[in-house]
Design goal:
single chain, two-stranded antiparallel ribbon, alpha+beta, 165 residues, Nuclear Transport Factor 2, Chain: A
Length: 165
């Protein structure tokens, strides 16, 4: 009986720890969203670990926070046309006490027309761009950070053919 009570007590402590970590990760997602929506690329880059990598919706691979910073600062003028952005966590899975995987749906509202550097149309005011993100987040020095992320465009036409929906 004592072993069972001890086991249940330990399970309860572990669940409470996950709840605090879950809230911290939700706050990280909110921080990412807010820094994007404020076009604050300095703060945006701080959600990443020093070696945090990102694969963009356009297929670019940025291997660490320095490259993420260089690229996001260079693209910040275009990002101003893609506000607000809303992230919805679809799933959060803990790998262990210091690693979690997230799956997020991104909804970006195009607030004004914008063009690519070559002059071709990038987005029209009033449109939405949808992305599917996967993140690996890690707990470093008691703080959750984005270690690796990938963003993929959600093809609205193909969405209707998803065999599991």
């Amino acid at each position: 009986m004592l072993i069972a009570i001890t086991f249940l007590f330990c399970m309860n402590i572990k669940a409470q720890d996950r709840s605090a970590d879950s809230m911290a990760i939700i706050n990280l997602v909110t921080q990412y969203e807010n820094t994007w929506n404020n076009n604050d690329m300095d703060a945006h880059c701080k959600v990443f670990t020093e070696d945090g990598s990102w694969i963009t919706i356009g297929g670019f691979y940025w291997k660490d926070r320095s490259e993420v910073s260089t690229a996001t600062h260079a693209l910040a003028p275009a990002f101003k046309h893609m506000i607000p952005m809303k992230l919805n966590i679809q799933r959060m899975q803990f790998v262990d006490e210091k690693v979690a995987v997230l799956f997020l749906l991104e909804d970006i509202y195009i607030n004004s027309d914008w063009n690519y550097p070559d002059g071709s149309i990038g987005g029209k005011k009033g449109e939405h761009d949808y992305g599917q993100m996967s993140w690996v987040v890690v707990k470093e020095n008691g703080e959750w950070k984005l270690k690796a992320g990938h963003n993929t465009t959600v093809d609205q036409k193909m969405k209707q053919f998803n065999p599991v929906k």
